[in-house]
Amino acid sequence: AQKITQTQPGMFVQEKEAVTLDCTYDTSDQSYGLFWYKQPSSGEMIFLIYQGSYDEQNATEGRYSLNFQKARKSANLVISASQLGDSAMYFCAMPGSNYKLTFGKGTLLTVNP
Amino acid sequence: NAGVTQTPKFQVLKTGQSMTLQCAQDMNHNSMYWYRQDPGMGLRLIYYSASEGTTDKGEVPNGYNVSRLNKREFSLRLESAAPSQTSVYFCASSDGTGSIYEQYFGPGTRLTVT
Questions:
Q1: N- to C-terminal Cα distance for chain A?
Q2: Which residues does chain B have within 8 Å of residue A44's beta carbon, measured at their own beta carbons?
Q3: Which of A101, B8, B79, B88 is the most buried if burial means most Cβ atoms within 10 Å?
Q4: Of B97, B101, B109, which to mutate for an interface test with A (greatest number of A Cβ within 10 Å)?
């Protein structure tokens, strides 16, 4: 069974600063991946970034990057140059058999002007 | 291309009533999923269908049934609603191919059981 832990229920960041959202995982699989999803107040789930365990370089998608440290079993999301529109819930998730996702409990990010 | 659609968007039920949540995807995906989201709990898998004609239980299946009607449609039924089933329900689909098997989510159904 997989387990995803997000230890930060809420985070605050000033506009234009960088912020790191923590995610640790536990899995017995040799090959695995991690997703990050964003959920704004409107409720939809938006895919942000993905990294596989065998990818050699950390994934980046625009202002989002994934700080993947396999030895620590962590896959932290880094948002650079925060914008007001980044205020949302952020979920870390790991796919398992049949691509089912196991989600963390989420981190509510608030970007202050 | 609508992606994943869900109906209804909102629903209020009385305890003991039944209802079916509908989900459809137009991306020709093989796999479909139902999750529920509760405050402080993240999303939890209720049921999934790896391919047309198959369904399996997820983490929290009690009180629910599903039907994979065809490749496009995957419905979730509450036979006798309980207040504990008050939640936001998300349907998702995935094609399960390639190096990234991203799940595409519907807009959600907000269900209140009184």
A1: 41
A2: 105, 107-108
A3: A101
A4: B101
